[in-house]
């Protein structure tokens, strides 16, 4: 009878060692294939590991006739010994609470000393933590062996030994007790099992690190494409997939780049850089990659919006410095190039705008100087000339003031605008501005539309005039001759945001209107509508930028409305009727 039991145990051991050998072979296969594995490929071997470990703990429990079997490994972050799934006879909730210090109780002593241990009842354990935990898990007795990884030399001598965790078997079946024979069986199995578990841990760490890398790359705002030396994509982050229209859920890894990247300019850059990388690898060219300027390319999105990308490339090498591919980084420089373009246009526009008032000033001054005896031109003629000169001096002064204000806003934002607050009767200010604008044109009708007729608002008189001049001047400039310009002012009821009520003021014209694509852009610095009709009206593109910041300094907002080109537009702003009390700390 005893011989039959021994034979049965030896059979179980042989079966288990075969399982372990199979798993070791899978480890080797995975190690060989790891560099070319994709994220989706990794989930399959992980599940195979889990299944094999489940069979391992189940067979181990059968061999020593244990009701429960579980593996504990050291947590890298907390330093604790924690149970890991799959376990035998212990459910997931129990596995989750089964964790102890790496020097605590039976688990900690076996892990630290590297020697097995048997306990015959929870009360026999020296650690209070063990007693409470073992009673909670209904553990009567158990045997624990260390999971050791041994490194041997060419003569098969052990030169290094590392403990990675412990193997527990609990509750001997049929009311029995664990004995030294159980220890010897578990030690025989644990050495092979430890190697498998260590490889499984290492592979899991590789998977986790890869996932972290993928998530990190996907969080980049720049597009990244890694192409191997065979022209196939090794990595492509979310931004790059969006740039080149790769369908969501499609894995581009391993696909030739030309099948996915249909944008010809990008494909040409990649082909050129891959050829350069091949020349460097073959030794037929020097690696002067760092000295070369990055390429630039333009891509149209689904809404035909053009985006400009700067393409940086770098060669990627393995641990032996052998080339394995080329990385392409696509930085969106659309805004940068737009700002550069707008600044260039701005300098050109400002030069023209400065020259516009200077030309008549110079001409009429020259005319007056050519008539020193006042024989050619009458007094009325001279007064007309003086009036034109005076008007253009004012125009030049306003342009210079606008430029100075832009400079202040650039440095300090809207909060840097100095305000002289006062209670102002708005209608008087509007009528004054309207009268000035009527003096500059006799081809438009200006109408003041107030409700109620008298509106008192807390503002800076100079700044509110600046806003109104910009609004009304633009309405006149972009309206046809004979068009109506209506200045609308309304008092709005108090609300949570504005407890004292608000002023809504708009200037409505019958002019060129605003294309929908520009409605949200107007008010940004240097923005001007790009069509012949609007361009011919002139302007620097900073007037509405100043208005937006002046309105924000009042604690309000501005916005344009238009039904489209040729249908006129209305420019609104809303500000509180009274300003909130100032904070003495901010003033100091």
Question: Tags for this entry?
Answer:
single chain, 588 residues, alpha+beta, Beta-Lactamase, Helix Hairpins, 18 strands
Write the layout of secondary structure elements.
Blueprint: H1 2-33, H2 39-63, E1 66-74, E2 80-88, H3 92-97, E3 99-101, H4 105-113, E4 117-119, H5 128-136, E5 142-152, E6 158-172, H6 180-219, E7 223-228, E8 233-236, H7 238-243, H8 257-260, H9 264-282, E9 295-300, E10 306-317, E11 323-332, H10 334-369, H11 379-412, E12 422-425, H12 426-438, E13 445-451, E14 456-459, H13 461-477, E15 484-492, E16 502-508, H14 532-535, H15 543-553, E17 557-562, E18 569-576, H16 584-587
Parallel strand pairs: 13-15
Antiparallel strand pairs: 1-2, 1-6, 2-3, 4-5, 5-6, 7-8, 7-11, 9-10, 10-11, 12-14, 15-16, 16-18, 17-18
């Amino acid at each position: 009878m005893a011989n039959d039991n021994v034979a049965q145990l030896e059979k179980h051991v042989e079966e288990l060692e075969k399982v372990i050998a199979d798993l070791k072979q899978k480890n080797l296969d995975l190690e060989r294939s790891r560099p070319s594995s994709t994220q989706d490929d990794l989930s399959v071997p992980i599940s195979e590991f889990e299944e094999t470990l489940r069979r391992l703990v189940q067979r181990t429990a059968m061999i020593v006739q244990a009701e429960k079997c579980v593996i504990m490994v050291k947590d890298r972050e907390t330093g604790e010994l924690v149970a890991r799934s799959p376990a035998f006879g212990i459910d997931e909730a129990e596995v989750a609470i089964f964790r102890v210090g790496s020097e605590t109780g039976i688990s900690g002593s076996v892990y630290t000393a590297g020697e097995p241990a048997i306990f015959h009842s929870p009360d026999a354990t020296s650690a209070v933590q063990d007693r409470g935990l073992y009673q909670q898990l209904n553990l009567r007795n158990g045997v624990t062996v260390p999971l050791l990884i041994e490194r041997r030399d060419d003569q098969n001598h052990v030169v290094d030994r590392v403990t990675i965790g412990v193997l527990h078997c609990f509750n001997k079946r049929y009311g029995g007790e664990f004995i030294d024979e159980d220890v010897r069986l578990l030690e025989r199995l644990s050495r092979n099992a430890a190697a498998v578990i260590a490889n499984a841990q290492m592979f899991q760490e590789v998977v986790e690190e890869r996932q972290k890398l993928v998530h990190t790359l996907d969080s980049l705002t720049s597009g990244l494409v890694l192409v191997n030396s065979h022209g196939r994509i090794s990595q492509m982050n979310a931004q790059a997939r969006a740039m080149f229209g790769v369908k969501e859920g499609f894995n581009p890894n391993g696909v030739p780049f030309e099948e996915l990247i249909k944008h010809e300019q990008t494909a040409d850059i990649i082909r050129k850089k891959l050829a350069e990388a091949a020349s460097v690898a073959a030794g037929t060219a020097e690696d002067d990659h760092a000295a070369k300027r990055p390429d630039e390319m333009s891509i149209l999105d689904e809404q035909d919006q053009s985006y400009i990308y700067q393409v940086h490339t770098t060669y990627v090498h393995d641990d032996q410095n052998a080339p394995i591919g080329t990385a392409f980084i696509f930085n969106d420089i659309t805004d940068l190039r737009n700002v550069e373009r707008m600044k260039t246009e701005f300098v050109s526009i400002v030069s023209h705008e400065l020259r516009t008032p200077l030309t008549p000033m110079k001409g009429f001054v020259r005319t007056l100087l050519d008539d020193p005896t006042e024989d050619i031109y009458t007094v009325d003629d001279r007064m007309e000339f003086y009036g034109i000169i005076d008007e253009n001096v004012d125009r030049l002064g306003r342009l210079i003031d606008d430029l100075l204000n832009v400079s202040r806003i650039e440095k300090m934002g809207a909060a840097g605008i100095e305000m002289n607050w006062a209670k102002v009767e708005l209608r008087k200010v509007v009528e004054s501005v309207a009268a000035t604008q009527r003096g500059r044109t006799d081809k438009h009708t200006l109408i003041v539309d107030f409700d109620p007729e008298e509106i008192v608002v807390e503002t800076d008189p100079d700044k509110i005039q600046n806003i109104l001049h910009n609004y009304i001047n633009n309405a006149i400039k972009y309206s046809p001759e004979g068009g109506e310009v209506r200045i609308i002012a309304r008092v709005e009821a108090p609300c949570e945001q504005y407890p004292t009520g608000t002023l809504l003021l708009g200037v409505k014209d019958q002019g060129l209107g605003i294309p929908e694509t520009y409605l949200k852009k107007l008010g940004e610095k240097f923005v001007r509508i790009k069509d012949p009709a609007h361009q011919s009206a002139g302007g620097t593109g900073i007037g509405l930028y100043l208005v937006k910041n002046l309105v924000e300094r009042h604690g309000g907002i501005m916005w344009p409305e238009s039904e489209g080109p040729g249908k006129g537009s209305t420019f609104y702003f809303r500000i509180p009727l009274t300003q909130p009390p100032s904070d003495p700390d901010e003033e100091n």
